[in-house]
Amino acid sequence: MAEIRVMGEHQYPDLIRLFNGLFERSLNTILVRGDDEPLYLPADDACGQHRIIFAHGFFSSALHEISHWCVAGAKRRTLVDFGYWYKPDGRTAQEQALFESVEVKPQALEWMFSVACGLRFHFSADNLSAEIGASRDFERRVQRQVLQYLDTGLPERAGMLVDALRAFYNTDPLRPESFRLQHESEADCEAQPERATG
Asked: 27 with 156: CB under 8 angstroms?
């Protein structure tokens, strides 16, 4: 019996099928639901495929982990968690600023993936215990990166996924007006120069 997809629902098995359909054969990479913290594992003796493992079946976690994979170059994709050292929750303001500096491109892609599948995007400061949320400066930097991607084009893997998500969820092409910040006024948005959307 064929599965019926209800519009507006975001189920992680759909995302797994879309991602694996694009990249399992071409790049030997699969998306996997995990039961713990997210993790990227390159192919090894135990498993011949690279694995993007997202947390607890959360759809947004999957989009976030995919965005890191889309940013990572070929060498980093051979390293556990792309070779990054992770400072857990409870970072100082200085450590948070460093965290934000490496999160701009991944969160820009995650925002674009979210819009492509009709899902609301939330900036992640990933530092709940310190009560340091995503700064407005960080949000603006992510927004600028999104607009740059719209102007100059997405990286190949990210572009392929955006196309697949838009086709599956039947969403409109990505446009600058879809990426407004909550604290932006309408006047701010209207004052921004128009950009080509490719």
From this structure: no
